[in-house]
Write a structure and sequence with these properties.
- The chain is α+β, with helices and mostly antiparallel strands.
- It has 4 helices and 5 strands, in the order E-H-H-E-E-E-H-E-H.
- A 5-stranded mixed sheet has the order 1-2-3-4-5.
- A hairpin with a 2-residue loop joins strand 2 and strand 3.
- The longest helix is centred in the N-terminal third of the chain and has 13 residues.
- About 30% of the residues are buried.
């Protein structure tokens, strides 16, 4: 049994998620932890597509956030049908807790939501491996990044 729990991200968690972000991405563009926390609150709680049934997720151990997966709800249309889409973003786990399987637990919680489609908003090779380990599929054709020369 893991020593952590996964639960929905709440507004008071923003400061801890900002601190986690600073540990995972030390060259982040924010001038202060407060500015980073404000970004997470704005992006995930004040966006026009906010959906309480598609929350972002935190992994918490001993009261400390050790992992995070942001979820941006969106609507898409395909074949005349409206689809509920969950776009995963800002996926991170504390470097000292990566062996804890928190990443897999966060992704499984995310995949278990009521969305029709779950997609990632950009990811690296480590995220792709976690995505697939948690039951997701990676489509190489849809993973192209275009560059204009």
């Amino acid at each position: 049994m893991p020593g952590f729990a996964v639960r929905p991200f709440a507004v008071p968690d923003a400061a801890q998620v900002a601190a986690l972000h600073a540990r995972v991405y030390p060259r982040a563009p924010w001038d202060s932890p407060a500015e980073c926390a404000a970004y997470f609150r704005e992006l995930l709680f004040r966006n026009p597509w906010q959906d309480p049934e598609l929350p972002s997720w935190v992994a918490v151990e001993d009261g400390q956030v050790i992992g995070f997966l942001g979820v941006l709800p969106r609507r898409m249309r395909a074949g005349g049908r409206t689809l509920r889409v969950a776009v995963g973003c800002q996926f991170m786990v504390d470097p000292e807790r990566r062996a804890s399987f928190a990443a897999i637990a966060l992704l499984r919680q995310y995949f278990g939501g009521p969305q029709d489609i779950a997609i990632a908003d950009g990811a690296n090779e480590a995220s792709r491996a976690c995505w697939q380990a948690a039951g997701g599929t990676a489509s190489p054709l849809h993973n192209l990044h275009w560059v204009r020369l």
